[in-house]
Write a structure and sequence with these properties.
globular, 40% helix, 8-stranded mixed sheet
């Protein structure tokens, strides 16, 4: 049976691909900046009705993140002392992981989630993973400390990076998380049907801004620097993030557990009953890690 693309894997319009190719012939530098513009621009998907309850029941506010100079939409669900941070993926929303948020509240945890810059209800802007991480850092100072952190896709990469750099949590859950940053850039450039030398140019531009190699933000590199127990949940039929990346993640994670599903893809895994049960069981299990 032919696999259908997931909701997040939106094809790049042919007109943009043709425009990128024309720019490349005129000036690879212009093509690079155009590719960066597209790469940094999240797509705002309409919020589906299934997320309405969390949107209605959560306490919401706009919070300024001083490090990036942007405001983000905050969602708080539950009213408990113990807290869980939930981070959505690229072109996602803070309410997207609503079933996981409900499960955490049922366990007695307040959940804090947010629309990353340029996503959901947050003001429109371009963004990148470092801004995700800077948002997490400010949220920890404002609402933390967090007991657990849960991230989907790019959100999982941001959670691992945050744990490697500043955040102290008891356990981490990563769902459909990508790994090597340079591979992600290569994949995007291939979708634009441009030469991979544009990928090299993009990475140089970002590394100049970051002041360090882009691959320092790779999930496996971050995972290798922490002792925190991590549950990786990944579907074999994920078309957005290949299941093969889990091998490198598990190889580099000091305290990792892998839960594999089939037929759920990149997004439906977020609401699957088996996945929810695995997450809650993992988080309830006693840990001997010192926090």
């Amino acid at each position: 049976m032919e696999k259908k693309p997931s909701n997040n894997q939106v094809p790049i319009p042919r007109a943009l691909i043709l425009f990128a190719k024309i720019l490349y012939r005129i000036s690879p530098k212009w093509a690079t900046h155009f590719a960066i513009y597209l790469f940094s621009s999240p797509i705002r998907h309409p919020r589906p009705a299934r997320e309405d309850q969390m949107n209605k029941n959560s306490r919401q506010s706009l919070l300024l993140i001083p490090q990036v100079g942007k405001k983000i939409q905050i969602y708080q669900l539950g009213d408990f002392q113990k807290k869980v941070l939930i981070v959505h993926g690229w072109s996602g929303r803070g309410t997207q992981l609503f079933k996981i948020a409900d499960a955490m509240v049922a366990m007695g945890y307040t959940t804090i989630s947010f629309d990353a810059p340029g996503h959901g209800k947050s003001p429109k802007s371009r963004t990148h993973m470092k801004e995700y991480i800077q948002c997490i850092e400010h949220l920890e100072k404002t609402f933390g400390p967090f007991d657990f952190a849960i991230g989907h896709s790019l959100g999982g990469m941001a959670v691992l990076n945050s744990a490697a750099r500043f955040m102290k949590v008891k356990k981490i859950v990563c769902i459909g998380v990508a790994d090597i940053v340079s591979d992600i850039v290569d994949s995007f450039v291939k979708r634009l049907e441009l030469s991979l030398d544009i990928s090299t140019r993009i990475q140089k531009v970002f590394e100049t801004k970051l002041g360090e190699p882009m691959n320092n933000y790779s999930a496996s590199f971050a995972a290798s620097r922490i002792d925190t127990p991590v549950l990786f949940a990944h579907d074999k039929d994920d078309l957005d993030v290949p299941f093969a990346v889990t091998k490198n993640l598990m190889r580099n994670c000091k305290n990792g557990t892998l839960f594999v599903t089939e037929g759920l893809g990149h997004n439906r895994i977020l609401g699957d009953a088996r996945v929810l049960e695995e997450i809650t069981t993992f988080l309830k299990k006693e840990s001997h890690e010192k926090i």
